[in-house]
């Protein structure tokens, strides 16, 4: 059996408790390599919370008198004093990560991320889970400066990622595909570029109209409008800098035609770029005029 563990201190374990918002007592990883089986039976449970994540293979849990065979991508959350019966068998190739932690009862954060109801949660397989568990184990082993604070951030990051993936696994969100996410990343990476949705969908073998509908359904606006919104938000910031003329702001946000840019800006914000600059900071106009005259002389 391969065991990797980290403890806050050598007394930390299932009996440890803390009154902090989030506190990690210990974390580890179990893999059966030669041992035929491994079992944990705690009729009185633990004094703290325990989360077990099946990174690979299968594990067996007896919950409320019923045996569950859970495959990779599932996790189980035990609350304080809940009985714990779980079993690993070599034939199932289990690879299990776990963490014991304390948090306040009826924790708002756990509720928001969907971990206050039920015991079994399908969160999918995600390499980031393993990274976070490995980092928690390392922090507990090395105990570098501010490791307690880092552990709090890590376990909250774990629940955020698991909660987010739970939502995506729901049937309502099954169409929220990676193509939409990739498009959003590209829009923010270079919003001024000449980005065409038709080329994007063609390169990925997607139906153009279906992608447009999917994007609008989950984001709330069309891809074209999303790009305009990003550009107009950037334009507001650029207009606050007196070094840029309106035509330069237009070009920096992807528009060669300043008049077209101005129409879009006014349609978005209800005010022209010139008036926005004047209303936001009248001194910028004075400074801009002074710089322009000084440059000419």
TrEMBL record:
- Which Pfam families does the UniProt entry name for this protein? AraC_binding, HTH_18
Q: Does the keyword Transcription apply?
A: yes
Keywords assigned by UniProt? DNA-binding, Transcription, Transcription regulation
Name under which the protein is recorded:
AraC family transcriptional regulator
Lineage start: Bacteria, Bacillati, Bacillota, Clostridia, Lachnospirales
Q: Which residues form the HTH araC/xylS-type domain?
A: 181-279
What is the species listed in this Swiss-Prot or TrEMBL entry? Candidatus Galacturonatibacter soehngenii
Which residue spans adopt a coiled-coil conformation according to this UniProt entry? none
Keyword set includes Protein transport: no
- Give the top-rank taxon of the lineage listed in the UniProt record for this protein: Bacteria
Q: Which SMART domains match?
A: HTH_ARAC (SM00342)
Any single GO molecular-function term of the entry would be:
sequence-specific DNA binding
């Amino acid at each position: 059996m391969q065991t990797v563990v980290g403890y806050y201190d050598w007394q930390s374990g299932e009996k440890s408790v803390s009154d902090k918002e989030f506190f990690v007592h210990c974390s580890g990883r179990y893999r059966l390599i030669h041992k035929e089986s491994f079992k944990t039976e705690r009729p009185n449970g633990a004094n703290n919370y325990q989360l077990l994540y099946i990174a690979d293979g299968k594990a067996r849990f007896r919950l409320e008198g019923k045996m569950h065979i859970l495959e990779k991508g599932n996790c189980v959350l035990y609350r304080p004093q809940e009985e714990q019966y779980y079993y690993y068998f070599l034939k199932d190739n289990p690879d299990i990560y776990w963490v014991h932690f304390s948090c306040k009862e009826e924790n708002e954060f756990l509720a928001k991320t969907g971990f206050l109801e039920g015991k079994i949660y399908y969160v999918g397989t995600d390499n980031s889970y393993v990274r976070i568990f490995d980092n928690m184990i390392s922090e507990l082993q090395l105990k570098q400066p501010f490791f307690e604070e880092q552990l709090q951030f890590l376990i909250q990051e774990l629940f955020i990622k698991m909660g987010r993936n739970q939502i995506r696994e729901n049937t309502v969100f099954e169409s929220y595909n990676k193509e939409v996410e990739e498009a959003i990343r590209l829009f923010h990476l270079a919003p001024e570029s000449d980005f065409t949705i038709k080329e994007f969908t063609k390169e990925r073998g997607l139906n153009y109209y279906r992608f447009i509908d999917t994007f609008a359904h989950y984001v709330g606006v069309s891809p074209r409008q999303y790009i305009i919104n990003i550009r107009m938000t950037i334009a507001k910031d650029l207009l606050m800098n007196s070094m840029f003329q309106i035509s330069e702001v237009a070009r920096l946000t992807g528009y060669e035609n300043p008049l077209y840019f101005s129409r879009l800006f006014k349609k978005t914000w209800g005010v022209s770029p010139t008036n926005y600059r004047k209303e936001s900071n009248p001194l910028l106009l004075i400074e801009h005029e002074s710089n322009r005259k000084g440059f000419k002389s």
